[in-house]
Amino acid sequence: YEKICRYIARGSDSVVVSVGYRLAPEHKYPAAYEDCLNATIHFMKNIEHYGVDPARIIVCGDSAGGNLAAAVSQTLAGRSDLPKLRAQILIYPGLQALDFNLPSYQQNQGVPLLFRERAAFYVLRYLNGDALHMQEVLEGSHIPPDMRLKYRKWVSPD
């Protein structure tokens, strides 16, 4: 990602900090999240050292990094001891593992690069390091009915 980060930094006249977080399956959740959160907090607490305007901090990530950027942004949203984030940029983020049968998964299940089964596989690897429950996840039986009802406003075919 170094080339991409350099490109973004030059093109946007920005300071880009790229976090080398620990990867699954060797490092199970929440290792990657903790790495990203700790790096972001350190950066924000030492912002004057980096010569960055505290009103212009953006958190960004793609794929699993998009998930981590969203989680870090939500965690920091209520912190009054740190500068407020200006924005978050999420590029094809993995944001939900409740339902792999939503229309986007069905319509794109055979489209490279991230097939439906591969997406479920990576979610399982991220969370617990193995893919023993792949079929249950693909069928949606890994979510209790009461939780499915609770979140259907946000995660449903509608």
Structural overview:
By secondary structure, the chain is mainly alpha-helical. The chain folds into 2 domains: 1-91, no CATH class; 103-155, no CATH class. The chain is built from 8 helices and 2 strands, in the order αααβαβαααα. It has helices at residues 2-12, 31-45, 47-50, 64-76, 103-107, 116-128, 134-139, 145-151; strands at 58-62, 87-91. The chain has a two-stranded parallel ribbon with strand order 1-2. β1, α4 (64-76) and β2 form a beta-alpha-beta unit. α2 crosses α4. The model has no long low-confidence stretch (mean pLDDT 88).
SSE blueprint and pairings:
Layout: H1 2-12, H2 31-45, H3 47-50, E1 58-62, H4 64-76, E2 87-91, H5 103-107, H6 116-128, H7 134-139, H8 145-151
Parallel strand pairs: 1-2
| Count of domain modules | 2
Amino-to-carboxy terminus distance: 36 Å
Number of helices: 8
Strand order of the largest sheet: 1-2
Query: How much is the radius of gyration in Å?
Result: 18 Å
Give the oligomeric state of the chains in this entry, treating copies of one chain as homo and distinct chains as hetero. Answer: single chain
Q: How confident is the prediction overall: mean pLDDT?
A: 88
| Unreliable residue runs | none
How much of the residues is beta strand, in percent? 5-15%
Query: Can you give the helix content as a percent range?
Result: 40-55%
Globally, the shape reads: elongated
Number of strands: 2
Query: Which structural class do the helices and strands define?
Result: mainly alpha
Largest beta-sheet details:
2 strands, parallel
Topology order in helix (H) and strand (E) letters: HHHEHEHHHH
